[in-house]
What we know:
Mean pLDDT of chain B: 90
Shape of chain B: globular
Structural class of chain A: alpha+beta
Number of strands of chain B: 10
Strand content of chain A: 5-15%
Number of helices of chain B: 8
Largest sheet of chain B: 6 strands, mixed
Number of helices of chain A: 30
Strand order of the largest sheet of chain A: 3-4-9-6-8-7
Number of strands of chain A: 22
Radius of gyration of chain A: 34 Å
Largest interface: A-B, 34 and 40 residues
Distance between the termini of chain B: 34 Å
Structural class of chain B: alpha/beta
Oligomer: heterodimer
Order of helices and strands of chain B: EEEHEEHEHHHEHEHEEH
Helix content of chain A: 55-70%
Amino acid sequence: MLGRDAHSTLMVLRKLVLSNFSVHRARAALTISAIALSVSLVVAVTTGYASSIAAAQKFLGFYMGTADLSITRSKGDPHGTFPQSIVNDLRADPQVKLALIRYGSGSLLLNDQGKKIPGRPVDLIGLRRPEDTAVEALQMEGGKWFSVSKGQYAVIDQILAKRLKLDIGGKITLAGPGKSLTLEVTGIVHKPAILAADQQTVYMPLETMQDFFDRNGRINRIMLTLTPGSDADAFKQRWLPRVEKVDPLLAIKSAGDMRKQMDGNLAGMNFLSYLGGTISMLAATFIVFSALSMGVVERQRTLAMLRAIGAFKSQLAKLVVIEGMILSALGVGIGVPLGYLWVKALATWKKDIFSAGVVISWGGVVYGVLGSLLTALAASLLPAYTASRADPLEAMVPLAKPQGSRLPWVAMAVGLVCASFDTLIAFLPLSRDVKFYGHFILGLPGLMLGFFLISPLFVWYFETVFSGLIARMLGLQPALLRQQLSSGIWRAAGTCSALMVGLAILVVMQVQGHSMLQGWRLPNKFPDIFIVSFEGLSPEQEKRLEHTPGIKPGELMPVAVTAAVLSGENIDIKGANLIPTAAMFFGIDPDKSLKMIELEFRDDNGNTATAAEQKRMNAQASVELKQGRHLIITDEYRRLLGKKRGDKLTIATPLHGNVEYTIAGVVWSPGIEVIVSMFDMDRQFDQRTAASVFGSLEDAKRDFGISDVTLFAANLDYGVDKNKLVADMERESKEPEPQPTTEPAGSSPPGPSSLLSGAKKWFGVGATTSTTSPATMQTADRTTAFKGLKQFLGMSGMQAGDVRQIKFQIQNGFERLLLLLSSIAFASMAVAALGVTNTIMANIRSRRWQFGILRSIGVTRSQLLRLVLGEAILLGLVGCALGLSAGMLMSVNANRLNESIIGYVVPIKPPWAIIGIGTLIVMVTAVLASLWPAASVARAEPLSLLQAGRASA
Amino acid sequence: MSPLVVDKVVKHYRQGDRDVAALNGVSLDVAAGAFMAIMGASGSGKSTLLHLMAGLTKCDSGSVRVNGADLGGMNDKQLTLFRRRSIGLVFQSFNLIPTLTAEENVALPLMLDGVSAQETKAKVDELLESLGLTKRRSHRPDAMSGGEQQRVAIGRALVTNPAVLLADEPTGNLDSMNSKSVCELLRDLSSMRNMTIVMVTHEPTVAAFAQEVAVLKDGTLVERFATQETGDHQGLAMRYQECLR
């Protein structure tokens, strides 16, 4: 219980603090602003994220209806279909209130000329109307839902309508395997922009869709609503053996399971939303420290007097801590509603993204509030200690003792120790768990604290070395700029550390990101293109695809993709849910694929094998893969698993339970999982996957139940004569092929002739040119060949991607993502700007007398302005040096930790241009933040400076 | 028993790489209700002696007793509490908290001690009235004259009813008019409230207000005399000069 004495003491300390704020209004305001800005960022980012997720969940809720359970073939082949007849049994169960069936797939769209419309394929959802009423919960922007389960009608989302400039009654044409289907738009439904921007949806009658894909009587989702009071888990347990009899890959998931899976998939984003705010809070911590340090330095005499008249050391320490806590509480008080208002304003502006309204992230609010109070407490510790050491004798001397500019060697030595924690954790032979948690709990905080404690050395060094140079550059006497920062070394250190945070984060993000990108190199021999068919191809269709003009004869390779869950291997960090125990399994034809892909084989230590060894390993792996139940794994996976060639891996297969696979080889990862992720092939797996493994196509079929192969890798035949290519295509298009399903009256589906004319246009070949002669032969180059093939395949409902283009797109996308993530660093720099203004203002305040004298003896306003700017340049330089040093050290440590924790080894490749821009931003921030105080002091009259200086002496 | 007894105190301190003997076995006792001025040239040790009496620093040997309590045997916490409750300090540069009003500055030691608001107000009101500061109670230091500021500082020193009031050059920052006013106030406090006061000064005109003068030279007490013996301040000045020869 707080005693009377303690309470009174708190009251007097609070009074002292508040009265101090009333005198230093600008300083208090800037510090509170920095805290408020950082807290508002935490609240805004987490609330914005929570609101977006709520919008997505609201939509998915509408889309899924209020289904209690969902049945899909998600154990190994989420795209696969199963007989819809099972729904009749389900409907007969008295606990089933409603059973809806859906068929989901994808399709490319064609324009009036039968040409593929550029852009991503759309999601197709087949509904059985009018019994499927769940979709009626979706908000209609116009028109109405079709009311048949067969018919050429569609409801599309608003983004697709806008993209295709379609209205009610408009037509869309889907490209299918060798056919097309035109649908009439009966309604436009609203889908949250955050979902629709990436993936647009077309809803169509179920049976029409089944006809179109030759999947009559087959579906890929059943949604069940149970009668009130039914136990969903018990129902699931009761029905699972029955549905597995129909298809062993079928799984029953509850709404909770799906929510859990979604949360798990979004955990990374959630973590990032908190990380962004944390970085800003870190910058704010240094600013609070800086502000409190200023207060302690300026009030040395007052503190000494308080000690002399009987204040305990602890009371002075509490005075500073209370000051920090009040600043923080005020910042929080402003920051929380400010963060909410930011999201609210954004939600008003972008209603599409926040269609579920603003959903406050209470976790984010609590994190922001507690984080801010705790960091303010941490920031006040050193100033509080300094205050408690105030010598009461100081109060007895008539003139204040000038502040010493001695370097705090002890603090710097402690800083050096703290800064080395992360490096020690990264490089010492510790367990992965210790490294992971040690890095986040001890390493990173230690590194930031360490650099902050070392920062006085940076301040001293840069001031000693560069102050003269900067003074000369600004046309000032070097003596004027000497010791301006080191005279208040801790406040300068605090501000420079705040500047450091943003740059360090930018450096580590960019260095890590770019190093990973640079480390991703495709093998010398790798398929030119990947082709995705939304539905699996029949052997005949596959054969036709192999003979598609432009594809090198014999160089089409089917690839079965699924997720392989390792059994008995614990490669995740305990409690982190970071590394999934599933890998992406690529089922390949060993003979063909090991010829088409030149994998770089590694020895048991991860070293590249010699050329002769490569050849031997390749041949041996091919033989072993053909034997079945053998795998080629990537080198990073080898590190994670701690296995080598010949070791066994137990894989939990959906069809045969736990099966032992033998490692047939270890290779440098070609990044094939990244490439196929561009086709969203990993989107519907039950499990998240880490790394990739290669097995045989037969294993994929036998153990994982992959019946339809939807991914194909191929090499281009781009040395062919363009005219011959078109002629081949013309012949190919005249081959008998399944006719399109019934077309609505008045529409003309793009037939073979229109497909051909589209292709001819792409190849730049005249429609009548069908003969070749050596004199007129035009060879199709790689780009032309790919364009033509892509268009040709697109018209057949298949999506093709050039591997090199995909890699380029992934790299570009990743670089854009890195820049987006770098906004965390820029936000931190904005917070730091307030600290720079604060420090410059404090420096000016403590030297008003000196400035008054300088002005009295003839120093011009301009010189005074330049003097203050010089100080800001020095602060900026120190901030940059700290940021670059801390950032590079963090990058080296992170690189090593990557190797230990996720097994990924890449050489460090700093992107100097972006780092240079970041450095420039810090310098500009420092200078801009000092302009206002610099201009203020330059405008002041000499007499007012002298009077103000005397009053505060 | 004398409220303030200094017995054979020795104090050395370091100045750069030099060892300075500030006090060489000074002994002094101040009777209850006495008003003593300590005089001496710059560097004679008078301020150091005051600091020892105030418990702001400790002597190397000897002892300082205030109301019978040996300050040398106290730890920092005990010493702080003792200063708060038993010692009143008046500084040359007033040392008021610029952000607090006169009333709040006076009340500060009581607030630090957790005295109730009601009790504090009663004491502060009384003091402000006796110091002639009632109308200035809500003013901050920057709105007051030097004399007023020093009276507020004296009020702050008196508010805990200390055993001794120690003043270090209390008129050093004041003009002659305000200086006289402050000296009269100290004299009245001694004579009318029986307050024991020790004041360090180098000005005979100020020392003349005290009852007794102790002269220090090179860290040694060389003379102690009653101001009555010297007549006016000129006589005191002459006696003081003689002591320093």
